[in-house]
């Protein structure tokens, strides 16, 4: 009779559990890394593709984490899709007392509004739905974020 040898295999977490077990956006946390002179971490993008419901499920923990920042400033959402209703924010567990939702008015574009919100510095993070951001728009967002000591997150849905 041969002795029984037990080989230990590490437990695997389902995809969402493994994803949610880690900080969602550690690079977006204020003070996470010292800023360099070009400050590349002031602008981030998150591209989500697929069914709208699945995209919202992936977006919920990101926004929830940002809404619970220790920073006393707002989490500002610029021109979010119509599906991100107050009911959705509540059901997703976001701290709605720390969220400001802004829609551009008149001839103002979402990019202009995002830059203004970043520049003013009343928000720790400004989340926008600008679609694909070209180099010029990215530079505008970076400059505005640096002026307001804020962070810009663009969500691309498609």
Automatic annotation (TrEMBL):
GO terms of biological process kind: negative regulation of cell division; SOS response
Pfam families assigned: SulA
Protein name: CDP-glycerol--UDP-pyrophosphoryl-N-acetylglucosaminyl-N-acetylmannosamine glycerophosphotransferase
SUPFAM superfamilies referenced in this protein's UniProt entry, alphabetically: P-loop containing nucleoside triphosphate hydrolases
Organism: Pseudomonas xantholysinigenes
Signal peptide as annotated in the record: none
Stored InterPro entries: Cell_div_suppressor_SulA, P-loop_NTPase
């Amino acid at each position: 009779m041969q002795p029984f040898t037990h080989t230990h295999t590490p437990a695997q977490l389902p995809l969402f559990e493994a994803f949610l077990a880690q900080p969602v956006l550690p690079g977006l946390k204020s003070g996470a890394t010292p800023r360099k002179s070009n400050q590349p971490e002031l602008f981030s993008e998150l591209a989500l593709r697929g069914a709208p419901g699945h995209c919202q499920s992936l977006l919920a923990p990101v926004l929830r984490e940002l809404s619970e920042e220790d920073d006393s400033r707002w989490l500002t959402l610029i021109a979010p899709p119509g599906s991100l209703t107050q009911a959705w924010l509540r059901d997703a567990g976001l701290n709605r007392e720390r969220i400001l939702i802004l829609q551009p008015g008149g001839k103002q574009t979402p990019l202009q509004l995002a830059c203004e919100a970043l520049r003013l510095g009343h928000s720790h993070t400004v989340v926008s739905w600008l679609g694909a951001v070209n180099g010029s728009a990215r530079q505008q967002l970076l400059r505005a974020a640096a002026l307001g000591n804020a962070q810009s997150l663009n969500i691309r849905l498609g």
